[in-house]
Write a structure and sequence with these properties.
4-stranded mixed beta sheet, alpha/beta, 17 strands, Translation Initiation Factor IF3
Amino acid sequence: MSTTPFVELDGSQGEGGGQILRSSLALSLLTGRPFRLHNVRARRPKPGLQAQHLMSVRAAATVGNAEVLGASLGSAELTFTPGEVRPGHYTFDIGTAGATALVLHTVYLPLALRGGQPSHLTITGGTHVLAAPSFDYLDATWRGHLGAFGLNVSLKLRRPGFYPRGGGLLEVMVPPVERLGGVRVADQAAVRVTGVSAVAGLPDHVGRRMAQRAEERLEDRGFPVEIRQATWENGPACVVTLTVEAGGVPAVFFAFGERGKPAEDVADEAVDQVERYLEAGPRPVDPHAADQLLLPAVFADGPTSYDVTEVTQHLLTNRDVIAAFLDRRVTITGDEGQPGRVEVA
């Protein structure tokens, strides 16, 4: 186990949620530096470790042979001392509709850069849930950006999982890489929008209404649009996924149905995100990818730079957590809530 001093972190700083925890776990495994996190998720309605956050801790401890104190539901304090990252076949069951994507984000980079052999992950929980990347986003946008760094992760959706039922099944293959290369993401202008209007355990007319509303609004903007309808299992649920294509890495936006929420409102929510993205100009990195790219960027050889459609609190917080573990210069220009630029020297 590491004998280096602990990195001290305050979970109430910045965005004050689970991102501080996930980034700290990944950085600890990558650098070998232990940390103590106080005030875990202090700014959330239910502070402390919830099911998906606890699974992120357990997943990191498992793949990194770590010693952990405070790994229990509701815990507001966590101490994590990493060991050696070990590749292998791992199964992580969140037990709720907690986001499978966020557990994946915790462990994929340590396994890729420190594992030395391929790893296979099976993660059970939510694959299409609020406040987390959906499977479709992971498969198109997240994987696309990682590929530019030289890391080609493979994903398979065996079964979708929605709130509150969960039960989704995500399979992941993480290859080992000796090094990542820095990237410069070039500006690009949107050329068309494609999408999926999916229902699970709901009448077909719900999917038709979502697709029709999204098509009408996007066509009014003059964009070629093609939205297909799909029927999934493991509902009841509905989701609209819209993909902005521009020749490079696509940007994916999505919205989910809720009890009492009209189908048209679901479509409007997804289209509103697309419109905000387009109004920011030809900037290639959406707000969610903006902070997700920081970890691979700071472990890449050579500089990385990209424009973002919005500087978010998540992006700024991730920069600050990285600075606690690494001496790598990350410069973010632009005001919070406005377009900006990220440069990793």
